[in-house]
Amino acid sequence: MALRVTEKAAELLKEIKLELASSPEEVLRLVQRGGGFELAFDQEREGDQVYRSGEEAVLLVAPDVAALLAEATIDAEETEEGPRLTLSTSQP
Predict the structure, then answer these.
(1) Strands lying side by side in the sheet with 56-61
(2) For residues 43 and 75, what is the distance between their CA atoms, to the nearest angstrom?
(3) Which domains, ranges and CATH numbers included, belong to the chain?
(4) Which residues are registered as beta bridge partners of 49?
C-alpha cells in the first residue's frame, strides 16, 4: 500500500503552496524530523512520490518516508483556528 492523501488534504496543500511558495517550482515535502513529520518547501527529486491536486503537484514524499507511512492517510479537518492537516496510521 502507499500513503494516501485525501482530496480535501490535497486542496489544502494546494492553497498553502499558492500562498507561501516563493517560486512555482517549490512544492511541499513531507519530511521526518525528530519523532514526527513536518512540511518543508523543496523541489521534486528522482524517486519521489508526487501527489497532485488537479494538475498541480502539491506534496512530495521521498521513498524512505513513503515506506514508513505505507499505511497512513493525510487528511484535512476544520478546527476553530481554521483547516488543519492530519496524519493517521491504520493499525493492522
Answers:
(1) 36-42, 27-33, 56-61, 49-53
(2) 22
(3) 4-89 (2.60.300.12)
(4) 61
C-alpha neighbours within 13 Å on the C-beta side of residue 28: 23
pLDDT tens digits, residue range 43-77? 999 999 999 999 999 999 999 999 999 999 999 99
This prediction has a pTM of: 0.91
Q: Which residue has the cell 493499525?
A: 91
pLDDT band at 2 (very low <50, low <70, confident <90, very high): confident
| Interatomic CA distance for residues 39 and 71, integer angstroms | 19
Work out the pLDDT band at 91, boundaries 50, 70, 90.
Answer: low
